[in-house]
Amino acid sequence: MLSSMNTKLRGHHLICLNFFRGEGYSEDFIKNLYSVLRKESIEIVKGPDEVCARCPYLKNNRCSSDEYTDEMILDQDREALRLLMFKPGEVVDWKIIAAKIPQVIEEWKARFCLDCRYQEVCFG
């Protein structure tokens, strides 16, 4: 059994949370993100995770955002796992993820960040 110092995260959150700057959908959502980031390690999961659990767009275990379809989110997850070379079920440390970000970020930005509402927050 995993300790309480682990968090469960889906693929795209492994990349995007590296750029979290205290903004989000609500105070409850932001507070949850800080809690997730304090965890020592991450169990990689397929589908909704501990971040999604507090997202106002999670409905019936799917993303119901006007901005993103559930299929788009799943595509981001698959691509993040491919770029980072991880698989669902693996347990990794934030340091390992952060060390891989410089090698993948340009490809990630070109594919997913151009239309993201948080682009300015993440990259200035």
What does this structure look like?
This is DUF1284 domain-containing protein. It comes from Candidatus Methanoperedens nitratireducens. InterPro entries: DUF1284. It holds the Pfam family DUF1284. The protein has 124 residues and is of the alpha+beta class. It has one domain (6-123). Helices cover 46% and strands 12% of the residues. It has helices at 11-16, 27-37, 70-84, 94-113, 119-123, and strands at residues 6-9, 41-44, 58-59, 62-63, 91-93. The strands form 2 sheets. A 3-stranded mixed sheet has the order 1-2-5. Strands 3-4 form a two-stranded antiparallel sheet. α3 (70-84) packs across α4 (94-113).
What are the defining features of this structure?
124 residues, 5 strands, DUF1284, 3-stranded mixed sheet, 12% strand, DUF1284 domain-containing protein
In short:
With 124 residues, the chain is α+β, with helices and mostly antiparallel strands. It has helices spanning 11-16, 27-37, 70-84, 94-113, 119-123, and strands at 6-9, 41-44, 58-59, 62-63, 91-93.
Give the count of helical stretches.
Answer: 5
Share of helix among residues? 40-55%
Q: Whole-number average pLDDT?
A: 91
Radius of gyration: 14 Å
Overall structural domain count: 1
Shape: globular
Main sheet properties: 3 strands, mixed
Q: Based on DSSP secondary structure assignment, what is the total number of beta strands?
A: 5
What is the H/E order? EHHEEEHEHH
Structural class: alpha+beta
What fraction of residues sit in β-strands?
A: 5-15%
Low-confidence stretches: none
Measure the end-to-end span.
40 Å
**Widest beta sheet: strand line-up:** 1-2-5
